[in-house]
Amino acid sequence: MNNKKIIWLTGQPGSGKTTIANSLKDYFEKINDSNIVVIVDGDDLREITINKDYSKNGRVNNIKTAQKIAKFLFNKDFITIVALVAPYKELREQFKSSTPVFEVYLHTDEIRGREHFFANDYEKPENDYLSIDTGGKSVSESVEIIYQNLK
């Protein structure tokens, strides 16, 4: 990967963030044996920080924790993939302004059984991002699109 960036997958629950992050990790590991790939996943992060607070304040704290971890890993030369709902555009934009981030907005109209976890206040990206409708693409197609747009 020539243009090194944190890959930040955002979107509502069920949009494919974790699935695509895991497939993207496998893809990078196949083509690049010199860097370790690390995924910062929202569900894992809530487990290790014991943050079960889904209020706005709880979500903000979770996002800021993910950003700190991602920046640390990135600065240690890990290929860093974040898979997090991160509903607040302002927090994502602030992070992108201070850190090299490739934001990928994943979305679908398909019913996938995670709709009860939706963030009603989710704000879609508006600037400098890649949009992928995961209902219209396979996981491998989505991964290839992300990889091609990173170049």
List keywords for this structure.
151 residues, alpha/beta, Rossmann fold, 5-stranded parallel sheet, 5 helices, globular
Please outline what is shown here:
The protein is an alpha/beta fold. The protein is built from five helices and five strands, in the order βαβααβαββα.
Describe the structure.
The protein has 151 residues and is of the alpha/beta class. The chain has one domain (6-150): Rossmann fold (3-Layer(aba) Sandwich). It has five helices and five strands, in the order βαβααβαββα. Strands 2-3-1-4-5 form a five-stranded parallel beta sheet, sandwiched between helices. The radius of gyration is 14 Å and the shape is globular.
Describe the SSE topology:
Blueprint (H helix, E strand, L loop, with lengths): L5 E5 L6 H15 L5 E5 H8 L6 H20 L3 E5 L5 H10 L2 E7 L21 E5 L5 H12 L1
Parallel strand pairs: 1-3, 1-4, 2-3, 4-5
Which CATH architecture is right? 3-Layer(aba) Sandwich
What is the spatial order of strands in the main beta sheet?
2-3-1-4-5
**Helix content range of the residues, please?**
40-55%
Q: What is the average of the pLDDT values?
A: 88
CATH superfamily: P-loop containing nucleotide triphosphate hydrolases
What is the 3D form?
Answer: globular
